[in-house]
Specification:
Number of strands: 0
Structural class: mainly alpha
Number of helices: 18
Distance between the termini: 34 Å
Strand content: under 5%
Shape: globular
Helix content: over 70%
């Protein structure tokens, strides 16, 4: 029970406080256990937050500069997508569906900023989420004989691996920082790491695997000044576990060991010879060419596939690249589809969120590292995948940014006695 009594905040508003706590707990847990119900909770959280904003209009006032910057950044990200569709003259709600999420979660940020939630539920729901993901992985792999597991998602393999990695990271950050657990916190962290690596490995998603070294480095940085030896042992055990997975998991071994030959062939001859690495390189080449032709606003939301087809028809890129629907790189994809305007809006949103996290770091150390890891994992995994254009992963990013930022603001208010009533 020691683990479940972390971080008590004084003087919460009872109903909104516990309601938001329940939503956050369910959101994190269901993102790994049941995506269908996760969407229901996400909608309820957004709607409830907007209602709280109307009932308690104080949530809209007395914003600090970093908080106001985040609200502006979230609005600009959605606004840049709307501007892009207006410039290209092809408005589509389907294409606006992902960017508008970052506008809608402003209400969640303001509601959490005002009322807060019980922060211990982050680690509890993350741990439960990791073990539920591991259980689903074992069932699908061992009983259903599925080659690449996808958990409760609708065959969105990369999203399952990404959300499991995030839940594992959040769990470990809180565990290694919580001193009351004592000497057991590092063995517990190692168990969580093992339980996280298992589903992530079984997804076979190389884009998510890219983020694992970054995750381990962040965990080391977060506690480096306190216990270097134990942290190095923890990191070493993690790398050994990853190495054993590579050596003894046939699927992981084949997907990684088979990268070198297609890469060398593509570098020497420019020929696409596989459906993973070289086809991605050709798709990234297409993305950069689209950006060069349309540097300000890109080719437009919803026009990536048709623009790629034009490049194929003129033999600029190879036809095998048509088999990949998206850019498979968030940065190149943003440049190709929305140009410099879209990329500037995306980077400003990340900057505003991390700036707020840094500002409130003293009173929210664990949330600071969770926030930093959230962005780092999305950026690194987005180097070989489409995280921002996926409904599941875009929703998760938007909501967790709003929740983390709101809670850090709430704790800063309590700590500095800044009465906003």
């Amino acid at each position: 029970m020691v683990l479940f009594s972390m971080i008590g905040l004084s003087f919460p508003s009872p109903v909104p406080y516990y309601l938001l706590s329940a939503f956050v707990a369910l959101l994190i847990f269901l993102s790994n256990a049941s995506v269908t119900y996760y969407y229901y909770v996400a909608v309820l959280l957004v709607v409830t937050s907007l209602i709280l904003a109307c009932v308690k209009p104080q949530v809209w006032v007395n914003l600090r500069s970093v908080e106001g910057s985040l609200v502006v950044a979230l609005s600009l990200y959605a606004g840049a997508a709307a501007l892009n569709m207006w410039v290209h003259g092809n408005w589509s709600w389907d294409q606006f569906n992902e960017p508008v999420k970052f506008l809608l979660v402003i209400g969640a940020f303001l509601a959490v900023r005002r009322h807060g939630f019980k922060e211990s539920i982050i680690v509890i729901s993350s741990i439960l989420g990791v073990f539920s993901a591991a259980a689903l992985t074992w069932y699908q792999s061992e009983y259903l004989s599925i080659g690449r597991v996808f958990g409760s998602t609708n065959n969105i393999i990369s999203a399952f691996g990404l959300l499991c990695l995030l839940a594992g990271y959040f769990s470990v950050v809180y565990i290694v920082h919580y001193k009351v657990i004592g000497k057991w916190r590092y063995p517990l962290a190692l168990v969580i790491i093992m339980a996280t690596l298992y589903p992530v490995a079984e997804t076979g998603t190389k884009g998510v695997w890219i983020a694992i070294p970054g995750v381990i480095c962040l965990i080391l940085m977060s506690k480096w000044s306190s216990n270097k030896r134990v942290l190095m042992l923890l990191a070493g055990a993690s790398f050994i576990s990853a190495a054993l997975i590579f050596l003894f998991n046939d699927m992981v071994h084949s997907r990684l060991s088979g990268l070198s030959q297609p890469l060398m062939t593509y570098i020497k001859n420019g020929v696409v010879t596989d459906g993973s690495l070289s086809v991605r390189l050709e798709t990234w080449k297409a993305s950069l060419m689209m950006f060069i032709d349309n540097p300000v606003f890109g080719v437009g939301l919803g026009n990536f596939v048709s623009a790629k087809a034009e490049l194929i028809s003129t033999d600029v890129i190879q036809a095998r690249a048509m088999g990949v629907a998206g850019p498979h790189n968030d940065l190149f994809g943003t440049l190709a589809i929305q140009g410099l305007v879209g990329l500037s809006a995306l980077l400003f949103m990340y900057y505003a969120f991390l700036r707020l996290s840094w500002k409130f770091k003293v009173h929210s150390l664990e949330l600071f590292w969770c926030s930093t890891g959230l962005i780092l994992i999305y950026v690194l995994s987005g180097l070989a995948g489409d995280r921002l254009s996926s409904n599941l992963t875009a929703t998760y990013l938007a909501l967790m940014m709003a929740i983390f930022a709101g809670q850090m603001s709430y704790k800063y208010t309590l700590a500095t006695h800044d009465n906003q009533n």
